[in-house]
Design a protein that fits this description.
With 131 residues, the chain is an alpha+beta fold. Helix content is 25%, strand content 31%. The longest helix has 14 residues.
């Protein structure tokens, strides 16, 4: 697998389209950090890290509106790819849907949202957009 983050986002996207409640994803440190950010910002209901096998798995409970059956995540877009990395300075971090969505940034201080990176004054690699 050449792009594990794109695989992570695709598994989430497919589970949302198929209306699954829980999705299982092979774990890595960067995927765990992205999962924590998505949970903190309210895009997923819950998550659990399981240490089985050589790398373990992440079980994610997706968040659905009970009345409309619509997911909290409308769109997941991969920005930086292994073939073309996208970096942004702290003063030129992207705004997703004029601040309604989040951009997940990998910085020297860890994985965080674009708003947190602006407050910290750090830039980094723009991993994905979520809204």
């Amino acid at each position: 697998m050449t792009d594990p983050i794109a695989d992570y986002l695709t598994r989430l996207r497919n589970a949302i389209k198929a209306s699954h409640r829980i999705v299982e994803i092979p774990a890595s440190n960067i995927k765990k950090e992205i999962t924590k950010v998505l949970h903190d910002k309210g895009y997923i209901q819950n998550y659990k890290f399981e240490e089985n096998g050589p790398q373990g798995t992440i079980k994610i409970a997706l968040k659905f509106n009970p009345s409309t059956k619509q997911n909290a995540i409308v769109n997941l877009t991969r920005v930086s790819t292994p073939g073309l990395r996208k970096y942004a300075k702290h003063d030129s971090l992207p705004r997703v849907i004029n601040g309604l969505g989040i951009a997940i940034i990998s910085t020297s201080k860890g994985v965080m949202t674009d708003k947190e990176a602006r407050v910290e004054g750090v830039g980094g690699e723009v991993l994905c957009y979520v809204y």
